[in-house]
Amino acid sequence: MNIDKELLEKYHLGLCSPEEQLFVEKWLADDTLDVDSALPITNRTAVQHEIWASVLPHMDTPVAPLPEKRPKIVSLVWRLGGVAALAAMLWSLWPRKADLQREMVFDNSKSVSPLWIRQANYDILLGEASSAKINIGTGKLEVAGNLLFKPKRNIEILKSGVPILLKQGETYIVLESTDAETQFIFTKSEMTFLPPAVQRRLKQQLNLS
């Protein structure tokens, strides 16, 4: 087998057989092998340089490593942190049993002005010279004087042993009583059914328009 122009072109185009490829590569390493007259000796160096120029860029090209998959620890931490924060917020908003069972005492008996008191589950407005005992866990609502009651959630209270639902967002008025047996509870809109003199008295005591 001789080195000629056609063989070198085949090698350059990658069309050589394994034997031809090996022969050309040996010739590139040792130029003492026989070269056909079709390839002048003066062109041998130029051909060698041309072939090496096309081969060398591919001989030592490093193979790019596959990207390493790292566990998404940071993403997982953020997700767990978000879940924990949400759970803590919901827990803080959830009414706790101890708070629901505790009896609250409010006293405005020595004042001539109504008093707003804001709690987690309700807001109340104590009329002048009024006081109240409230336990939403047991349904207790005792008022001495007059009281305006605004639930922040549905709350059941007992009146004569019968549960009454006070609805979230509604405004209720509780009239003076000495015990739950004689207590009157109605919504603010129902106040129009009361005698005018009673309406005026409630509006004055509870600062209602």
How is this structure best described in words?
With 209 residues, this protein is an alpha+beta fold. The protein has two domains: 5-59, no CATH class; 97-206, no CATH class. Helices cover 35% and strands 22% of the residues. The protein contains six helices and ten strands. The chain has helices at 5-13, 18-29, 44-59, 73-93, 97-101, 196-206; strands spanning 104-108, 115-118, 122-126, 130-135, 140-144, 147-151, 155-159, 162-166, 172-174, 185-187. Strands 2-3-6-9-10 form a five-stranded antiparallel sheet, with no helix packed on it. A hairpin with a 2-residue loop joins β7 (155-159) and β8 (162-166). The longest helix is centred in the middle third of the chain and has 21 residues, at 73-93.
